[in-house]
Design brief:
This protein has helices spanning 2-17, 25-32, 36-39, 46-64, 80-101, 103-106, 108-124, 131-153, 160-189. The chain is an all-alpha fold. Helix 7 (108-124) crosses helix 8 and helix 8 runs antiparallel to helix 9. The protein is elongated. The relative contact order is 0.09. InterPro entries: Homeodomain-like_sf, HTH_TetR. Residues 1-61 form the HTH tetR-type domain. GO terms for molecular function: DNA binding.
Length: 190
C-alpha cells in the first residue's frame, strides 16, 4: 500500500499545477518513482484515481453526519462535531483547494452540494415536497459552498475556526426558518 500512497501524493502535486487532461500515467509514475505498471495495480486511469480520492472524501463527510443529532442547534452542543469537521478539513485542506480550483473537471461543487443536501434532509427529517423549506435549505447549501470557496481563497487571513463559527450561526438561522415554515404549514393544514 505504500506505493499507492506515494502515487496519490505525486498525483496531487501534479494536479496542483496542471489540468488532469495534462497529467499522464508516465509522468505521474516518474514523479512517484515507480514503474508505470504499478499504477495499474490500483487504478484504471488518472480519472479513476481522482474519482477514488473524491469518493474517499465524500465517504468521510457522510460518516461525520452519522452521530449528529438535531442538538447541533443547541448553543451548548458538544464540540465533537466541530472537532471532527476541523480534523477532516485539515486532512483534506490541500486537496479540497485543488478540487475547487479544478471544479470544471471534477464536479466537486455539485457533489459537495448533493452530499450536504442529503445529510441535512436526513438530520432535519425534511419533506422534499415543501417548497419553502427546500428554498431555505438551498440558500444555506449554496452559501455553505461559496463560503468554503471564499475560505480557501483567503486562508492566509482566516482560521478554520472562523469559518466554522460563521457557518454554524448561519446554519442555525436556516434551521429556524425551516422550523417556522413547518409550523406555518402545519397550521394551514389544520
Amino acid at each position: 500500500m505504500k506505493a499507492r500512497v506515494v502515487i496519490i501524493d505525486a498525483f496531487w502535486q501534479l494536479y496542483k499545477e496542471k489540468s488532469i487532461k495534462q497529467i499522464t500515467v508516465t509522468e505521474l509514475m516518474t514523479k512517484a518513482g515507480y514503474h508505470r505498471s504499478v499504477f495499474y495495480q490500483y487504478f484504471r486511469d488518472i480519472y479513476d484515481l481522482l474519482k477514488q480520492e473524491q469518493d474517499a472524501f465524500f465517504e468521510e463527510v457522510d460518516n461525520l453526519w452519522q452521530d449528529v443529532s438535531i442538538e447541533i442547534l443547541n448553543e451548548n452542543y458538544s464540540t465533537v462535531l466541530i472537532e471532527k469537521i476541523n480534523e477532516l478539513s485539515l486532512k483534506y485542506d490541500f486537496k479540497v483547494g485543488i478540487l475547487l480550483k479544478h471544479n470544471d473537471e471534477t464536479d466537486f461543487k455539485n457533489r459537495f452540494n448533493n452530499t450536504l443536501r442529503k445529510n441535512l434532509y436526513n438530520l432535519l427529517k425534511l419533506q422534499e415536497n415543501d417548497a419553502k423549506v427546500k428554498l431555505a435549505l438551498e440558500v444555506y447549501i449554496s452559501g455553505q459552498l461559496e463560503s468554503l470557496v471564499y475560505f480557501h481563497r483567503h486562508k492566509n487571513k482566516l482560521d478554520f475556526k472562523d469559518y466554522l463559527e460563521v457557518t454554524k450561526s448561519i446554519f442555525r438561522t436556516c434551521v429556524k426558518q425551516i422550523e417556522e415554515s413547518h409550523s406555518k404549514n402545519e397550521e394551514n393544514h389544520d
